[in-house]
Design goal:
Helix 5 links the parallel strand 1 and strand 2. The chain has a two-stranded parallel ribbon. It is built from 6 helices and 2 strands; from the N terminus they run H-H-H-H-E-H-E-H. The protein starts with a helix and ends with a helix. The chain has a single domain, classed as Alpha/Beta hydrolase fold, catalytic domain (Rossmann fold), CATH 3.40.50.1820. By secondary structure, the protein is mostly helical. Helices cover 54% and strands 8% of the residues. The model has no long low-confidence stretch (mean pLDDT 94).
Length: 125
């Protein structure tokens, strides 16, 4: 739980309230669900071994919403901008103050954007 809170302090959202109790409960639930330390290392290796998918993103033909925090210390916001630029017609939502997490304070903005994207998708059928 301490490590989960420490990680949240590094890659979390400086523009939103830091709820240490909530983060501790979440870390405990994650531990109880499945503690598998090698998982993070495997994810990193998979990321490093994966080829560039930018060209393939140009083939996406559904309404797309890319959501990224402007305070993401793990994946620079330029990654979100590049992803949105690579997908024809994609909408980009940069959430001010959001890091590499989904803080509850950002949920209303994110939910509204997802609903709008779903409505666009339905309208295009």
């Amino acid at each position: 739980m301490d490590r989960g809170v420490a990680n949240a302090r590094i890659i979390g959202s400086p523009g939103f309230a830091f709820d240490e109790d909530r983060l501790r409960r979440r870390a405990a639930l994650a531990w109880d669900r499945c503690h598998y330390p090698i998982g993070a290392a495997r994810q990193l290796v998979a990321i490093m071994a994966s080829p560039d998918r930018t060209g393939a993103l140009g083939q996406v033909r559904v309404p797309t919403l890319v959501i990224h925090g402007d305070a993401d210390a793990l994946v620079d916001p330029s990654g979100g901008r590049a992803t949105a630029a690579a997908i024809p017609g994609a909408r980009l939502l940069i959430v001010p103050g959001m890091g590499h997490d989904l803080p509850p304070g950002a949920w209303p903005t994110i939910i509204d954007a997802i609903v709008d994207n779903a409505v666009m998708s339905r309208a295009q059928r």
